[in-house]
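Format notes (please read before filing issues)

Several people have asked whether sequences and structure tokens are stored in separate files. They are not. Every record keeps both together, in the order shown below: the sequence lines, then the token lines. Line labels are part of the format and must not be stripped during preprocessing.
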Amino acid sequence: MHDERTPHEAASGAARALVAAVDAVEDAEKALDQRVRVVLGVNNTDFAVLQYLDRVQRRGGTVRVGDIAARFGVSSGSATEIVHRLTNAGLVHRVPHPSDARVRRLALTDSAAERLDHIVGSVRSELDALLDTIDSGEEERLLQLLGQVADIFRSGSSAG
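Then the structure lines:
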């Protein structure tokens, strides 16, 4: 007999509470994302690209139009259109590659970086402060669990 209960219904009490907590974090993140989209005046796709660019830049990496196409599963033409919209909105600019004049990297404009920091900077600071309260054993376990949650989401997104 097939179990018709949702995963939430089938899980143990503790597991249900953890799933509910993950759902609450996701809902809160979506609410913050919506606020940022409205403030920046961008659509969902453009905002996702801005988030990606911001995340890569904060980690010291670089992004090209082809990276956007690959990351978001769009054609290079569509990725170029997204970049044009973001450039015209003053949120992204093209930066010459230091060693290859043919290559242009993308970067948030100073204005976009400042606007993002104004909106989400305090959230990032509060998260950093919260995470600093976790002892190393808990931190290791939390990282392990979050990695497993990410793996589960990835496996669900690639399932046929």
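For reference, the curators noted about this record: Helices lie at 7-10, 13-40, 44-58, 65-72, 76-88, 110-131, 136-158. The chain has a mean pLDDT of 88.
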